[in-house]
Amino acid sequence: MTLGLRLRVSLLFRTAFALCILGVLTLVLSLIISVFGAIFGFIVWGWLFRIYEFVLTMPRVSAVTPAPSTVMAPLALLVLVGIVYGWEHISPYTSADTLLPPTDAVSAGLLVVALGSLYLLVIEGIVAIAVALSMALTALDGLLVVFLVGAVLAIAGTIGEVRHEIGDLRENLLHETVLAKDIAPEVERTTHRLAQLADVPPPEVRIAETERPESFTIGTGTNAVVVVSGGLINTLDEAELEAVLAHEVSHLANQDSRIMGAALAPVLAADDWIDQNPDDYDVGDWLWNRMFGGLKWFGQLGVAVFSRGRELSADTAAATLTGSPSALASALQRLDEERRTPETDLREWEDSVTAIDILPPSEREGATGPFRTHPSTDARIERLRRLAADAERE
User: Fold this and answer.
1) How many whole angstroms separate alpha carbon 383 and alpha carbon 318?
2) pTM higher than 0.85
3) What total of structural domains would you count in the chain?
4) Are residues 236 and 379 in the same domain?
5) Using an 8 Å Cβ cutoff, are 190 and 211 in contact?
6) Is residue 68 domain-shared with residue 23, that is, in the same domain?
């Protein structure tokens, strides 16, 4: 079996395995969040019903006239809008006149009517909404509707929070970086040339002001950003730097940032439900955090397996773009030697560049184990050297 065929088979199995894990995690989280959302929906429904009962005790025009609240509420709104936007056409108007506080008898009368319309809008509006909801719940299964609404809102809220966290992660990763064109224009030119070869839009290129050698890619399409550190630029020679940039451009061509963002979403969702300040003596808090902590680690396993396959694919694509597998092998070797053992904790796993950096943050300590996001550097180097040997034989 050729090296390329083995890679495709490996990617297929890794993808299937990761999708199984992340699919199960997403399903379990959706069920849990749906249950809690439904419970919250029932609580809110109880509050709304009590508000409705209170409103029914308030004076209402619809209670003493044939006009229903569904008519009185829109009518009150029209009167209120008409007064706010048209009162100066009813009374003598100068630039010094105001509706609140009133400046004459006419504006005072209009203010009373406006306040009365506002009162009717609120009271009659609540009754009208309650009547409409009652009709809808009568036509359908009321309890099921409340359950589904609560579940959907809870899931939507969680998804929105995860999207916000992914946006925050992007901002944090780009913090204290500068445009490459301002301090290292040759890096931007090389990246754009490689992007053209890979047939992807030219990404924004930024330099991280850190001595630690690292590179990563975030975003996709026209929002893509390639980041390399000053330490990486100073460590590598021209051919090695080009190979690393080709690796990052390959991630863009493979849509890895978008895929990894989707894969991280259920992990971030599970993390959101972990109580960050649990009571040490509360068994419920302990069980709660163990449940969601276990789900989070389960998702991290799927992301890590998937990420390892994406790194191998990017290595191969980078070797094809530059035509020099040995240059990337040399770059990985040099970066591995320059890396100091970092202090990234697994609890902060999803808030770091662990899954997208060219080397894992804890290569020395984390080269093995189910949560490693990259193949071992030695294996990657050996694989690239075999690619170089195959290319020479051809």
Assistant:
1) 13
2) no
3) 2
4) yes
5) no
6) no
Cα three-residue angle 95-99-103, rounded to 5 degrees = 70
Q: Are strands 177-179 and 215-218 parallel, antiparallel or unpaired?
A: unpaired
- φ, ψ at 279 (rounded to 5°): -80, 120
Burial class of residue 270 (count of CB atoms within 10 Å of its CB; 0-12, 13-18, 19+): buried
Residue 51, domain member (yes or no): no
Helices (H) and strands (E) in the chain, counts: 12, 4
Distance CA 135, CA 133 (A): 5
Last residue of a domain, one of 90, 113, 139: 139
Phi, psi (degrees; rounded to nearest 5) at 206: -130, 155
Query: Quick one: 293 exposed, middle or buried, by C-beta within 10 A (0-12, 13-18, 19+)?
Result: middle
Whether 145 is in a domain gets the answer no
**Same domain, yes or no: 197 and 346:** yes
Both 360 and 283 in a single domain?
A: yes
Render pLDDT for 203-262 as a digit per residue (tens, 0 to 9): 999 998 888 888 888 888 888 899 998 989 999 999 999 999 999 999 888 888 777 777
Same domain for 208 and 339, yes or no, is: yes
Domain membership flag for residue 231: yes
Domain boundary among 86, 112, 139: 139
- Please check whether residues 205 and 312 belong to one and the same domain: yes
374 assigned to some structural domain: yes
> Is 302 in the same domain as 359?
yes
Residue 71 reports pLDDT greater than 60: yes
Task: Specify whether 248 is catalytic.
Answer: yes
Q: 183 and 323, same structural domain?
A: yes
Rounded Cα distance between 120 and 57, Å, is: 13
Q: Give residue-wise pLDDT tens across range 339-392.
A: 654 444 444 444 444 555 666 554 444 445 667 777 888 888 888 888 878 767
Selection from 263, 245, 266, 244 nearest residue 255 by Cα: 263
Residue of 188, 214, 248, 350 with catalytic role: 248
64, two tokens: 């003493």
Contact 295, 366 (CB under 8 A): no
The residue with tokens 């893509």 is 224
What helix, strand, coil percent values describe the chain, rounded to 5? 70, 5, 25
Domain with 115, as residue range(s), is 58-139
Taking the C-alpha atoms of residue 261 and residue 258, their distance in angstroms, rounded to an integer, is 5
Give 154-159 contacts, CB < 8 A, sequence gap 24+.
154/33, 154/34, 154/36, 154/37, 154/38, 154/40, 155/30, 155/33, 155/34, 155/37, 157/37, 158/29, 158/33, 158/269, 158/272, 159/265, 159/269
